[in-house]
Amino acid sequence: MKIKGVMKVASEIESKYGQSDFESAIDRLTFKNSVLVFITDTEGNIKYVSDEHDSGKPPKDLPEEAIEQPKRNRPLPENFNEFLQKLNASTEDYISYKVEEFKGPTLVYGSKLDNDTLLYISTSIGPINLTTNILKTQLVYVTITALLLGLVVSFFIAKKVAKPIIKITNSAERLAKGDYHVQFENGHYAELDQLAATLNYTTNELSKVEKLRRELIANISHDLRTPLTMIKAYAEMIRDISGEKKEKREAHLQVIIEESNRLASLVNNILELSILQSNNEALQINNVNLSETLKKILLRFGALSKFEGFEIKANIDYDLYVLVDEQRMERVIYNLMGNAINYIGEDKEIKVNLIDLGSRVRFEVIDTGKGIPSEELNLIWDRYYKAKTHKRSIISNGLGLSIVKSILEMHQAEFGIESAVGKGSKFWFELRK
Q1: Three-state SS for 211?
Q2: What is the pLDDT of residues 401-411, one digit of tens each?
Q3: Which residues lie within the region annotated Disordered (predicted)?
């Protein structure tokens, strides 16, 4: 960089040579670039001299007669003769070399301005090298300090970030081992807070699933144990007591048959519900006359209504066709009517309506029982839900309405319940034609 600077100074001096502002240009360049400039003839006689300090001032050790021409009487450098020899011996237009002096290395540049005029420029390069070395040393110290500071800051930042992640990981391990009471703490960062919220939601949902699983196992175990106990008891009674008594034996056998039917119904309902909720069995969709289907179902309940002493009042619009799986829809209607009979009111009356709504068909079954409290309305579609107002002892295992819900959802039907305590309940669903 220093060599380029000296060559640039030389170029500007050479361009100013012969002009009126030649000497002022040299003074400006020497002051600006910290260089020493001599303009001499080929014999070494000084024509003009300038440097950054003494430009325009005579040297103190010159005689008084030399003060009149201060720019021409500054002593030549000690290495000037060497300079002349190298310049005269050079085949190039200029020379450039370094000289070692007690003050440090000096860069010397020389060229010919014309046949009788020489340009000599020198400048110390020691201070620049010294500055460069100092800057290099400082850069090393600054770099090492910055790296150490960066490592310390990174350590604390990493520790702060890693701490909530470790907590979440530990909580996740507890969740994986079945601890559904674990809570995921927020991590003071938006992403970690969102992750913690998602995992807390997952934990709550898994807790609900686990609770339902335990309830399901308990309910199934209870419902299986009751008929099995009855079957075993009456089988032992036949063996030990009524084996030879036809009337008692047949009564006991009838109980065994009824309990076997109840057991088979429970197993079939569990299997059917599992198939429906797993979506492993496709619907057999056909254009079904729901009016005729409902009439057939009402005929099945006719004998039961006479035996139990209740009345079914039907209001059926004729020839209402819908696109449904007929067997599944029969199961829906049968379960809803069976549910209404289980919770029938004191008037022993059930109303069944099939109404044409234009683009849709609406089915309703209404009982006048004690109704369902509002806080329990969203629970009636759950497996094994049974209201406290259950009236009859016909086969009922708490899976009927859950099966209804699954089938109606598969048909993309709208369905619901309207009920109030003391006023009975209305179950309904609507299907597209």
Answers
A1: helix
A2: 888 898 899 89
A3: 49-76
Cα gap 430→322, rounded to integer Å: 10
State the DSSP code for 56: T
Q: Which one-letter DSSP state was computed for residue 242?
A: I
**Nearest CA-CA partner of 50 in 72, 68, 69:** 72
Position 30 in a domain: yes
Measured at the alpha carbon of residue 249, what is the angle toward residues 245 and 255, in degrees to the nearest 5?
160
Count of domains forming the chain: 2
User: Which of 93, 124, 155 finishes a domain?
Assistant: 124
- In a domain, residue 180? The reply is no
Lookup result for tokens 């339902």: 212
Q: pLDDT tens digit string along 388-433?
A: 544 444 445 567 788 889 889 989 999 999 998 888 999 999 999 8
- Counting other chains too, the contacts that 227-236 makes at CB distance below 8 Å and 24 or more residues apart are 227/259, 227/260, 227/262, 227/263, 227/266, 228/259, 228/263, 230/255, 230/256, 230/259, 231/256, 231/259, 231/260, 231/263, 234/259
| Reported pTM | 0.47
Structure tokens at 169: 């990981």
CATH code, domain carrying 90: 3.30.450
Of the candidates 330, 311, 338, the one whose C-alpha atom is nearest the C-alpha of residue 392 is 338
